[in-house]
Amino acid sequence: MHIGLIGLGKMGGNMRTRLRNAGIEVTGFDQNPDVTDVATLDELVAALPSPRTIWVMVPAGKITDSVVSDLHDRLDAGDLVIDGGNSRFTEDFKHAELLSAKGIDYIDAGVSGGVWGLENGYGLMVGGSAAQVERVMPVFDALRPEGPREEGFVHVGEVGAGHYAKMVHNGIEYALMQAYAEGFELLEKREDIIRDVPGTFKAWQRGTVVRSWLLELLVRALDEDDDLSEIEGYVEDSGEGRWTIEEAVANAVPVPTISASIFARFVSRQEDSPAMKAVAALRNQFGGHSVKKSDD
């Protein structure tokens, strides 16, 4: 099988390697001349046998829109485009409609695994027609982790379902990370009785109900920097957490834990939180609680 892959960054480049290791022929295209297999998108399209399959692995939003539009202009009826980036599921409807006008098929694939996917495989959540999913199943099987297919791959539903499932997955991920982070801070605060914070997390990796891959990654980070003093407490968000909350509001589903985790990220970006200043001022007004004066 021979596919095209657009976007050879941290994940896309590793995906190309994993696919090739599994015997899938891959022609990759990237704006970076050091990693691309072909110089132009036209060369990529020309290199692929018909019907073509092209996996898009670029940042969500305008860049994905541009790539899908360019493919619409270059591909033919019967070709297939797979968006494996972190697009919002509503964008899938727009992209599928655009491509279907020329008879080009579309699959959305939520992909999880990060930089470890090359070694461990990628968790895949896929949306699209059953026929098209079956058509490229060798690609999905090459990318997913070894073991039973249902433990690393799911055909969630029609177009949009894959990215919707990935959105919720990432919302849950936000909450899990926040819980570990808050536990870390509490343990650090009680240095009078907690002598080994990294060792505590390490001991949780086996036999406990909070063991997980995220916990393993936290242990790895603590092995490198045992009090995380080399890291600034500033956390970005990639969008999926916000979209999860928006969907929860639209469907009247309570998600207080996920909501709290995304707002905690916003707080992390403020050197001196105005909200916390207001809370301190209010506590002082109604209860006479002391406030810490600014150094300014």
From TrEMBL:
Gene3D superfamilies: N-(1-d-carboxylethyl)-l-norvaline Dehydrogenase, domain 2, NAD(P)-binding Rossmann-like Domain. One of its GO terms (molecular function) is NADP binding. Keywords: Gluconate utilization, Oxidoreductase. GO terms for biological process: D-gluconate metabolic process; pentose-phosphate shunt. This is Decarboxylating 6-phosphogluconate dehydrogenase. Belongs to the 6-phosphogluconate dehydrogenase family. Residues 162-296 form the 6-phosphogluconate dehydrogenase C-terminal domain. SUPFAM superfamilies: 6-phosphogluconate dehydrogenase C-terminal domain-like, NAD(P)-binding Rossmann-fold domains. The gene is gnd. PROSITE patterns: 6PGD (PS00461). The keyword Lipid metabolism does not apply. It comes from Mycetocola manganoxydans. Pfam families: 6PGD (PF00393), NAD_binding_2 (PF03446).
